[in-house]
Predict the 3D structure of the following.
Amino acid sequence: MIGVANVKVLGILGAHRVDGVTAQLLQAVLKGAATSAETELVDLNDYKLRPDHDGQPNNDLDILEAKLLAADVWILAAPTYLGSLSGVMKNFCDCFRGRIARFNSIGEAVPDRFKNKHYVTITDCYAGGLENYLTGVTDATFKTLDKFLTMGGLIKLREIVVTKTWGMQTLTAAKQAECERVGARAAHKKERDDSTVKRYIQLFFMIAVMALLTMGIEAGIQQLIPLNNFWAYYGVFVVVFYVLLALILHFFTVVKHRRR
């Protein structure tokens, strides 16, 4: 599908079925992107992937590398099998590991040619929505993809997940629409931004809300225990604020990836 050629979106399918739920999710995202960008879908099953060896040609990996370099946004889609990334996509990550970044003299990955490109990750699983939310069945898939892509300096845009896919033949209308919206937004992601300003704004509002909650809780405590001096008031404020902060940080540490 061809749209405006100034932005290119590349879809990478790492599933065994070309007509399964994972493929439908990827196609829906590309459909949304195609309204304003050039799109292409790559099925990893069409390539013979193997690690690079010194002096030996690796034509299929060369072809994929050229496509990845030409694209501004990567959409990677792979199902979650047995609580982890599908073998098809994992094999691609393993084989491409030596190309995603430049490695220095002590083996550290240094972002190079792919730095500041953007990406979206997609996965699905048989587990139900509540089970995935509570136990994070799909977390390992997202973590593996994030680790691989951030090695190259890519910037994450969004995650998409579908649960309870056993027996599912087609996407729901709501999920189809969500994928198309994600694709349309990804196609307009021209700026090379690591979202630092956005994070600072989010942090500001998080602290503001926490301070307001702390003051409200402290007002309730003061009805039971009079806080007659500055240090008592300050001490209670610090303790309550710290507890709220710990709870929020724990929540975002555990529920880090999209699970619904």
